[in-house]
Structure formats: C-alpha cells, structure tokens
From TrEMBL:
Enzyme's top EC category: isomerase
Record-annotated PPIase FKBP-type domain positions: 96-184, 246-305
Name of the protein described by the UniProt record: peptidylprolyl isomerase
Organism: Streptomyces smyrnaeus
Annotated region described as Disordered, given as residue ranges: 1-20, 43-98, 152-171, 187-237
Listed Pfam families: FKBP_C
Family membership noted in the UniProt record: Belongs to the FKBP-type PPIase family.
Keywords, sorted A to Z: Isomerase, Rotamase, Signal
EC number per UniProt: 5.2.1.8
Amino acid sequence: MLYISGGPSPRTPRAFRVPRSRSARRIAALLAVPLLAASAVACGGEDGSSDAKGSPPAVSGSWGKKPKIEKGEGDPPSELKTKVLKRGDGQKVQKGDAVSAHYVGQLWNGKEFDSSWKRKTPATFQIGTGKVIKGWDEALVGKNTGSRVEIVAPPDKGYGKKGQPPTIPGNSTLVFVVDLEKIAPSKIDGKPVDKPQNPQLPKVSTKVEKNKAPSVQMPKGKDSAPDQLLSETVVQGDGKKKVGANSTILTHFTAKAWKGGKQLDDTWAQNGAPQEIPVAQIPGWKEGLKGAQAGSRVVISVPQDEFPKEQRKQFKDGVVFSVDVLDVK
C-alpha cells in the first residue's frame, strides 16, 4: 500500500466502512490518505540530474493501463530522477492542486508495494504542499494532465532511514509510474438553499471556502441523533450528474458525533484533497445522498441503528455528516 504517516491509501474511511471481513471491522484511522509521507517542498528536475548512477528502469505499457516496470540496474541514484514517458496536453499541475491519478510503486529491486490499478480506482491527492513525499511534490508540479511520469525517489525524497515497514524498508529507493488523469475540483460551486434549515439537524454553514470544512453547530439539548435517518441539502448544486445507489462520489466531508459534537473525521484537515468514495460504503450515504446533484452540500444525520452491529457501540449516539458532492461517477 501507499502510505502517508503510516496510514493506508485513500479509500472509504475505515471508521465508517461497512465491514466485509475481520480486518475491515477493525476501527483504525478515521481517514486514509495517499502514500507519501508529509514533508517540506523543494524544486524538482526532469530527466536530468548531475547524478550519473541509476538510470530510471524501463517501463512498458500504454497510458491508462497498469504499466510493467523493470527492476533497477546497478546502484540506485542518490538524486531525484523524473522522466515523462508520455506528455499530455491537459491542464498543468500547479502547487496546491488536487490531482486524480493512477499509479504503481515498487522498490528499486522490482518488488511492488502499491498499485491504484489493483484497487480499480485512481487516487486523489494534493500536490506541492507537503501532503505527499518530496519526490512526488517535486516531480509532478508543472506536469500536464494526460501525462505518464516515471519517478525515481531516493530515500531522502521518500521515507528516509525509517521507511514504512513492512512493505518499504528503511533507506529504500522508490520507483513510481504515475498517470495524471485530471485536476479534481477542490470545492463545490452550488448556491445556498433559501429556506431555514431543519431544526432537527445540526446547523451547517453554507459558506464555501477552499481547504476549510464548514462549521457544524450541534442543536442545544440534544445528545443523540433522531431515530430516523434525516438528510437535507443546504447548498444546491446544478450539476447534471445525480447521486444514485451505486454511485461513487468525489467528496470532501466532515463528521461529528451527536453527543458533544466530537470531531470524528474531516477530509480538509487530513490531506487537503477530496476523496472518491462509493456511497454504499458509508452508512446513511446511499439514502441520504440519493438524487443529490454535483456541486451540493448535504447534511446527513445517521442514527445508531443504521450502522452495522459491530460499529453501533462506537457510534451509539449517532453521527452527523456534512458532505460536499464535488463530482458523481
């Protein structure tokens, strides 16, 4: 898997995921984010550094399909190497952009440790702001969407002396091939709904700010969610795509426990990038988001009974979500 600060890749947040196996039932980090340990940003080069060692391994395969990467030959390079295998003609990635991409990563010896193709969904991550490893921040800023980029990241541009055991040993040189698909929208573009919000639900701000979650004001005197699942659109989008039972959405969301308003999750605070999540994978979302248009903000109150039995004790007072629907697939 890809990791950032030891967490898994960006899929359905484990705390809210419908259990499928014993391992999936474990309550781990509330939100997972892409590989790539947080670190400071520097400048990156392409193809050429003064380091003569360790030419990037050969890569075969067409853009959009999982590539085959040969193992590295000889000693790995001590400097970052970047090679554009296919140059796209889309938007240029700028510092702070949320980028949707497929990628595969392996060690210099050829051992694969992660692949978004295996998960059958691209990853979305913020570039150029220290949310990912230095090798990605430096290599991908300035590249066009539609490009396939090979990155060889020495330890100081990856995970350093500690690595990410057990998949990435300390002092590992990492090889990635990244297909830059698109620059994802970073905020919704809908309009506030011109009517009072449901008093049974927490009051959620309709102000839309980049890189900041809306405020969620819990109702006074209420320490548990209403018995029935409730949802309300507070910002109405006008996107042509609507959420269905089998939809996957690109979303930013925040989640709080009803009792005391304890913060449970916040994608804005995690890695700054929206996440692609199947609505069927989080309790209450399939029903609460049904028919929501891209560009909307929806408040969903999920009572304890909506959660699987294994999770009801953890969420005994219910959960409120504020969900920004950036795109619908």
